Amino acid sequence: MTANTLAPNTALREYVTRPVAELREDPTAPERIGEFLDALESGTVRAAERSTDGTWHANAWVKSGILAAFALSETVAVPGWPGGAVDKSLVPPRQIEPVDGIRLVPGGTSVRRGAGLAAGTVVMPPSYLNTGAWVGTGSMVDSHVLVGSCAQVGERVHLSTAVQLGGVLEPIGATPVVVEDDVFIGAQCGLYEGVVVRERAVLAPGVTLTSRTVIFDLVNGREVRGEVPAGAVVVPGARPARGDYAASLGISLYAPVIVKYRDGSTDASTVLEEALR
Question: What NCBIfam families does its record include (predicted)?
């Protein structure tokens, strides 16, 4: 995920940020919102972008457009789903075709309208990708994975079984969860509240992080918040809870720790196996 060079999409931005009451009076609104959702699906519009200095920021206008899509929708029956389904009319499940270059294995997965999957991605069932999410080429979305609204996933990322990437639509300025290129996320990891996982990082199974979680870097003797450094290998840990009462009961608190950093010769599975021994 290099610095973003997306086109400004000025016309779309000006349209979807108009007052919803005004959009409701426009008979072309469903078509124009459809153009906006198409842009999200193709990746020409993204809910968050990386600046040249490496920081990530939310595109507030994109979130406004997604909220407008919900506000302008009717609640309708979605045909073809076993047992029936009811959802918003402008953001139904996407229809993935062979021309998209995506391997979507059958078995209960739903990719919602406005969720982008680059060609070369693989999605195993059952998983769910919400509006505004993006998954880059060569990435694997394993079974029982949630990619929440506006979450951004880079290229060649592995989201293992039951990974949860929290979504965020409001407040519109809040940065979503970001997973950069070549990251391995172990089974049942949870990432929430706009935490950023930098490139080539490895998260062992069961790691849970928010933007306020303290990560203890045992390699460099420091505390990290808000993001996982590039190449870091993070495993679940524990530290004693403070106070005599906690000590008397032997209570410990969850404390994710960085146990090592990947070098150029180690792949994710090798370095994770070594870290967990």
Answer: PRK11830.1
Residue 151 CB partners (closer than 8 Å, separation 6+):
130, 132, 133, 134, 165, 166, 167, 176, 177, 178, 179
Beta bridge partners of 227: 196
Q: Residue with structure tokens 């809870």?
A: 241
What pLDDT is attached to residue 272?
64
- Kindly report the CATH number assigned to the domain that includes residue 223: 2.160.10.10
268 belongs to a structural domain: no
The predicted-structure confidence for 214-248, as pLDDT tens digits, reads as follows 999 999 999 999 999 999 999 999 999 999 999 99
pLDDT of residue 83: 84
Q: Is residue 275 included in any domain, yes or no?
A: no
Write out the residue range of the structural domain in which residue 46 sits.
Answer: 10-76+90-259
Contact 237, 207 (CB under 8 A): no
First to last CA, the chain: 31
CA 191 to chain centre: 8
Rounded (5°) CA angle 47-53-56: 25
The rounded distance, in Å, linking the Cα atoms of 24 and 40 is: 22
- Assess contact for 76 and 153: CB atoms under 8 A: no
Upstream peptide bond of 236 is cis (omega within 30 degrees of 0): no
Is 85 inside any structural domain? no
Burial degree of 115 (CB within 10 A; 0-12, 13-18, 19+)? buried
- This prediction has a pTM of 0.92
Flag residues of the chain having pLDDT under 70. Answer: 1-8, 265-266, 269-277
Tell me the average pLDDT of the chain. 93
